[in-house]
Amino acid sequence: MTDSTAGPRALATLTDIRVFDYLCKAPATRTRIAADLGISKPTASQAISRLQENGLALAIERENEPKRGRVPEHYALDSSFGHLLALCLQAEFLQVRATDLAGQTLVDRLYPLTAQTTAAEVAQMGAREISRVAAELGSPLLAAAVSQSAPVERDGELRVLATPIFPSSGADLAGQFADGVPVLLDNDVNWMALAEAGDQADSLMMIYIGSGLGAGLVIDGALHRGKHGTAGELETQVVGGINLREALAEEGMFQTRVLWEKLADERNWPAFLAPFGQVLANLIGFVDPQRVVAIGPGLTPELCAALESELNRLLPKPVHVQLSALGTEAAARGALAGARELALGNLWENYRAR
């Protein structure tokens, strides 16, 4: 906290944060807030007043509320305070999702992409959507996150390393936001891993099998990106003297946007699982995660079971490969969680508990 929130103001701010978090879950009366948070009614009232003064909360009318006597006021998060925005690029689509600080979805659109869609076209789509969402919602953009289906190098300035799997992968989506807007940029599988991990402080390996291959590593509850931001990149791992991408390409399985189509035919599984299982077994044996979760378009429980069998043939200790239930939700959910954390950090750092 800054000097302006030190001492008594710090205590007031901490109380306001608790009340704000409570209102993010559901509207409530001052009495209910006080009872559930274990604070006095005057303290709850003061916190509500400060949140209202700062534009974070407002009084609302409840439908079907009895009108006899004095009706207690209900309070809720004021969604007009600002919104969060995620741009999530996959080989198949560009997803645009906006929420308020409570996580309520305000905008959610998918734009299909083709193998001919260029990076410049995707960047233009992103710029149009940023403006369109702002006009629709009429509220400030508090923070944004970009999920990129390509490696994101973090050695100095963040830089997307376009993948040859699909031409639009290198689109400069993060560069479309106005100056002053806090923007997070990360690889899509990292966002997926964070969404899957949630609040659990365990170790998780998220495996993506789709247009390309990748892994997100959450170790003891923290995302591991590595020195250059490319930890978990599976395609460059060496197997049989060549990298995994080359090994799969020799089997005709790793060309432009064709991998998941090949895997739809069970007869292609052995050619895929032999090199992929070897690379993945080495990584699992080294990291030793508590959970291994697979995600990707068209990924089936049967393919997960086949991968699990191949891994257990190679590993000294058995591992279970779980199919993620998040699907296309994963990247957007993780990205928006990151944007929310960034926005709230800025909010409370500059908050004034008058």
TrEMBL record:
<dbReference type="InterPro" id="IPR011991">
    <property type="entry name" value="ArsR-like_HTH"/>
</dbReference>
<dbReference type="Pfam" id="PF00480">
    <property type="entry name" value="ROK"/>
</dbReference>
<protein>
    <recommendedName>
        <fullName>Transcriptional regulator</fullName>
    </recommendedName>
</protein>
<dbReference type="InterPro" id="IPR043129">
    <property type="entry name" value="ATPase_NBD"/>
</dbReference>
<dbReference type="InterPro" id="IPR036390">
    <property type="entry name" value="WH_DNA-bd_sf"/>
</dbReference>
<comment type="similarity">
    <text>Belongs to the ROK (NagC/XylR) family.</text>
</comment>
<dbReference type="InterPro" id="IPR036388">
    <property type="entry name" value="WH-like_DNA-bd_sf"/>
</dbReference>
<dbReference type="InterPro" id="IPR000600">
    <property type="entry name" value="ROK"/>
</dbReference>
